[in-house]
């Protein structure tokens, strides 16, 4: 499959290999490598750089003396010299040491100009050299000066992808084909394809991957056993040269489900011993194994509650098993009662994670991270930020984003999510006064926590373009870039991705960047309004169904009636959820006068005639947004159509077909939502546009 | 499995085998059998009778001279003498001939008293003797005089069960476990269990069975091939002694999907030859094979439309292949556009079957039957009768009922469907003036058609009690009894079933009959109101979701808004569907003044304040019905609870658990539907009961 696919430019994603018209700079014609000989990551870095030079110029760079392992003199001719600090020639080492002195992470890299036109790429660790190599490859492809000095250190230690892949080859919430890792109940993969995937990930700085669904089914429960571990190890081996450590999602009830113990009680010594043995076994096969990802006591998954224990008991028991090996436990905070009663307007799923985990703050061991979804519900197109960010102060936390577009168009709609993620990262929790952003929280800096990170639920499958919709590659790219550096600008990322992916025609770059940047606002406009969410078909979550979840047990209600709509989550008259935020955020959301329009219906139940800050009534806003949202998609289609002939026909047609389909889907959303509200309230559109009765 | 299950009284269903306190009448102590020696059906009849006598009295009846095959003298001592007409002793033959003279069907049987206290059971065919034997067994168990003269001829030639079983062992719309016929992609069954199933079916007169789902998937498509036919034949062999002929659901695209032809065009001679060869092959394995059941051009199934042909072209081609062997084609009329647009209020799925098939009336060959669902939509709890009954006059038709409770409680709710079916059978189409009932149409009598029948979608799986809910056995029983004799009274059938199943305690009989007779009205009361239907969760169809299908592509809308609800299907202002009925039915439904309340919203869109014939407004009716419906279930629970100790504890607890669960489900329905309408219109309950806002 790999060979067939490589002919397709989509397969290369943002690592295109076309020759560059201007060739490569002089320094790129030669290279030198310094570091531990035979280190797979360092070798990989060198090979990637050489491959990029060869692709750009038609010629491999000459390898100079100063080969890996040789800490001799610095090269005397202009070249790209890359290596780990300890192995550098003494002349170079001092400057490198100085450049990297302030870098928090061993994965940081520095680029230094060298006298005579050379470039040095240095890091304390081989992985840093690898990230630096991909940084230089970006510069090469973007025509930027290779030697421009810079130091880059990842803001987050863990930059992780969570794969919701099942052993049967399906992917939960996957919209890009079947799993890259599994077929028919077996760990069974195309090594070349997985390596190609690993390099895509490494090129954006991802360093960890959970290889199986957090909903751990029967077969995946056995991944911990001798029958499966050799295969898990093989998969880990494919990722290793790219600096990516493998994690397993584990079933909390494994000792029971595997028939080995009568209990999974985390305080039972037999259970602790069982997991310790399991961890020892895993590390015998995979010495650099990352650790466990756990969904427990959530949506019918087993957990410590079964035994009257709490999440800290459960997580710490696993953490003790992993600690001797340097592994960590990533424990998901996505815990709520999924058998709620729609009749009870005081019950509020949004409150659940905070209510569950705040009392446990400080009780988790240092090698536990709590993985928290960006919002309190579940990856809706618009949610406030989870108040656990800034709430927890004595617990390691990770931010969980959803790259796969479960609720944001399922890769049938283009929906570039980086602007949403950026709002999340920049959100000021005010936990320790102004500037207490989510980015500062999850990096661990705000509270000086030893660990932190960002995880994204992968949007990748075995489709030739990895992500189903070619433009959805931009989401994967942006996730990695933001996880490395949350200060990046989403528009800038979009531009960079477009140039790397489609080349440097400014007309193309403007159009694609424009489509990407317009896409999330458009999707929000033509779907559920003003933060209310959940107007989707139950189960698969595709397409509009305004009351599909209204009377369910999932805690996902909007309470629309003949007068108004929205959820009262205020302290004064509602569920009290606003009280989970620090001031001044708490008051901002609590009061109708200050609550941002885009979250109005998340926090308040208001009449359709309520006037927004925008000056429009709620109902008129709904109508306008839905007509405007469709217009935005029509514009995207036109903008893309004008690219015909400017990009390769395969990718042009592939995206064109999805965009044309998106128009139909957007129209369906528009008409259903407008009609739904019109049928509720009977208020006509003041601009007289057609709303189906 | 068979052995384990037989200890459970539920497994015996209505063929209980407890000893009778009064033993058996004198005549039952001896038996004689006349007919072709070794005929499996006749032997089966004799064995069933002997088994029943043995169970009732502890002793097998003595077999007198006049054994099968011996047409000698009539027995001279009181006995039960059974046999086929041609083999009877001459003394008996004349009286039997006279009794059966008026019987239309060879499956008719007559019971005659014989001088000296004996009883004769006679038929023209072995199957008739079998049905008569089960008739005598009923008499025996019910304590009725064995010798009471009677002649009974089945009103419908085909009395058929359609199994929607898949080769993977699942059952589409099945609520009673896994398939009895398949496991893991194979035809793989427990012979004893299938035989036990066959005798249950024969005991209620069923004589045909389609063994696989009308949605024919990949594996089932291959049932026509040499690889599978020996196994199909084995299954047919298990049913044969009970007079049941096996049918296959076939995939119209079989020649293409099996890779043997490039087309499935019914007018292509290669296709006709292919099917002729397939039929020849099948009959080599199964000489008494029944024929094909076909769902074509419906819900994404392939059909003749693909090739620009019509249903008559498709059905007749298959019919020609089967005709030389005496087989028939049962072609489903369930054809509609399942990609409808909810915006278009003129489009109407209810019209579809009539619009499709009326133009073809007279074009179908004599060995084709058109199988028509009772209503124009899809087995909702309340629909009008399909206007194709009485519409088609030159086509053989069958009535399709759904025994499995897809939309009527999924065997979690008790819902005895015979009263609904009875209304359908008694519905007067006025096609040839008064008295043109559906029963007369489907039997073939009204238009003198050569063939007719009734099919029920089976509600059976491998659960120990066959039907999941023990009381759902009554639906299977009633289906068979009504298919044999549509003039039977549903309450009488309920009583008969209860006495056979639970014994003769009058307290038990009254309670169970009461529960059964109350159940369909209750279910209707607490679910979707006034014939509007479809307020269910999409996909699995369980539980309330008032707008779950409102904006779908399935053509299933109710158009509720802030003013009113219902579908205008009138000729004057709506879809014109009422025009598909003969007068006076057409006018009855067309006009608000005469339209029956229970179908009001099926035919008219009315304001919530519209006053029904009952004197209530629509909205008040909705509220009242939903409160009353729950009360009815609460009553059922109490009524059942009082049976503790009067029936065996296993069945008592099993039904108790389901009834208690039903109360919760009914409450959920009540509250969702009441709140839904309250939120639409804001009109409070005039009796002040609590409706959640």
TrEMBL record, chains A, B:
Q: Which residues form the Glycosyl hydrolase family 67 catalytic domain?
A: 150-466
Query: Its domain of life?
Result: Bacteria
Record domain Glycosyl hydrolase family 67 C-terminal: where? 467-689
Residues making up the signal peptide according to the UniProt record = none
Which UniProt keywords are given for this protein, alphabetically ordered? Carbohydrate metabolism, Glycosidase, Hydrolase, Polysaccharide degradation, Xylan degradation
Family (UniProt)? Belongs to the glycosyl hydrolase 67 family.
Q: Specify the protein name.
A: Alpha-glucuronidase
* Organism of provenance: Alicyclobacillus sendaiensis PA2
């Amino acid at each position: 499959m790999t060979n067939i696919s490589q002919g397709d430019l989509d397969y290369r994603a943002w690592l295109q290999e076309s020759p560059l018209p201007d060739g490569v700079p002089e320094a790129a014609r030669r290279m030198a490598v310094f570091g531990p000989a035979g280190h797979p990551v360092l070798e990989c870095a060198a090979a990637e750089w050489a491959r990029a030079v060869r692709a750009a110029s038609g010629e491999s760079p000459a390898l100079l003396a100063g080969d890996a392992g040789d800490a001799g003199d610095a090269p005397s001719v202009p070249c790209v010299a890359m290596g780990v600090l300890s192995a550098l020639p003494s002349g170079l080492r001092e400057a490198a040491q100085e450049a990297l002195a302030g870098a928090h992470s061993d994965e940081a890299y520095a680029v230094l100009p060298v006298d005579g036109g050379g470039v040095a790429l240095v890091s304390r660790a081989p992985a840093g050299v690898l990230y630096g190599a991909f940084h230089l490859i970006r510069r090469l492809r973007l025509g930027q000066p290779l030697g421009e000095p810079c130091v880059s250190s990842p803001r987050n230690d863990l930059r992780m992808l969570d794969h919701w892949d099942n052993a049967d080859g399906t992917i939960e919430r996957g919209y890009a084909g079947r799993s890259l890792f599994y077929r028919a109940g077996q760990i069974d993969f195309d090594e070349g394809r997985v390596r190609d995937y690993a390099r895509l990930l490494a090129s954006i700085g991802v360093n960890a991957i959970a290889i199986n669904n957090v909903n751990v089914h029967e077969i995946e429960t056995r991944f911990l056993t001798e029958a499966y571990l050799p295969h898990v190890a093989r998969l880990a081996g494919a990722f290793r040269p790219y600096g990516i450590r493998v994690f397993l999602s584990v079933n909390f009830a494994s000792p029971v489900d595997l028939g080995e113990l009568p209990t999974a009680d985390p305080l039972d010594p037999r259970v602790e011993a069982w997991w310790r043995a399991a961890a020892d076994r895993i590390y015998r096969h995979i010495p650099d194994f990352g650790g466990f990802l756990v969904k427990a006591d959530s949506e019918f998954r087993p957990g410590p509650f079964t035994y009257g224990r709490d999440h800290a008991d459960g997580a710490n028991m696993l953490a003790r098993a992993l600690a001797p090996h340097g592994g960590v436990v990533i424990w998901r905070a996505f815990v709520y009662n999924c058998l709620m009663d729609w009749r009870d307007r005081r019950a509020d799923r949004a409150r659940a994670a905070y209510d569950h985990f705040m009392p446990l703050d400080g009780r988790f061991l240092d090698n536990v991270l709590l993985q928290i979804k960006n919002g309190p519900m579940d990856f809706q197109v618009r949610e406030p930020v989870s108040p656990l960010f800034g709430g927890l102060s004595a617990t390691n936390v990770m931010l969980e984003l959803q790259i796969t577009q479960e609720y944001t168009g399922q890769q049938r709609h283009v929906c570039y999510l980086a602007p949403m993620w950026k709002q999340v990262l920049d959100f000021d929790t005010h936990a320790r006064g102004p500037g207490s952003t989510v980015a500062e929280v999850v990096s661990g800096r705000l509270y000086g926590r030893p660990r932190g990170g960002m995880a994204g639920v992968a949007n990748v499958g075995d489709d030739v373009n990895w992500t189903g919709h070619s433009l959805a590659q931009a989401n994967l790219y942006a996730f990695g870039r933001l996880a490395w550096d949350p200060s990046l600008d989403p528009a800038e990322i979009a531009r960079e991705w477009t140039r790397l992916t489609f080349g440097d025609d400014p007309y193309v770059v403007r159009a694609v960047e424009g489509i990407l940047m317009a896409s999330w606002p458009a999707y929000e406009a033509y779907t559920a309004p003003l933060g209310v969410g959940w107007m989707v078909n139950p189960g698969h979550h595709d397409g509009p169904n305004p009351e599909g979840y209204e009377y369910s047990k999932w805690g996902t209600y909007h309470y629309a009636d003949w007068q108004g709509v929205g959820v009262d989550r205020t302290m004064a008259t509602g569920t009290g959820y606003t009280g989970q935020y620090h001031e001044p955020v708490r008051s901002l959301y609590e009061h109708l006068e200050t609550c941002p329009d885009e979250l109005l219906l998340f926090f308040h139940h208001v009449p359709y005639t309520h006037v927004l800050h925008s000056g429009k009534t709620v109902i008129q806003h709904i109508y306008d947004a839905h007509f405007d949202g469709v217009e935005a998609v029509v514009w995207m289609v036109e903008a893309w159509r004008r690219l015909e002939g400017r990009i390769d026909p395969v990718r042009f047609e592939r995206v064109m077909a999805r965009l044309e389909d998106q128009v139909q889907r957007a129209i369906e959303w528009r008409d259903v939502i407008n009609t739904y509200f019109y049928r509720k309230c009977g208020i006509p559109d003041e601009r007289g546009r057609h709303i189906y009765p």
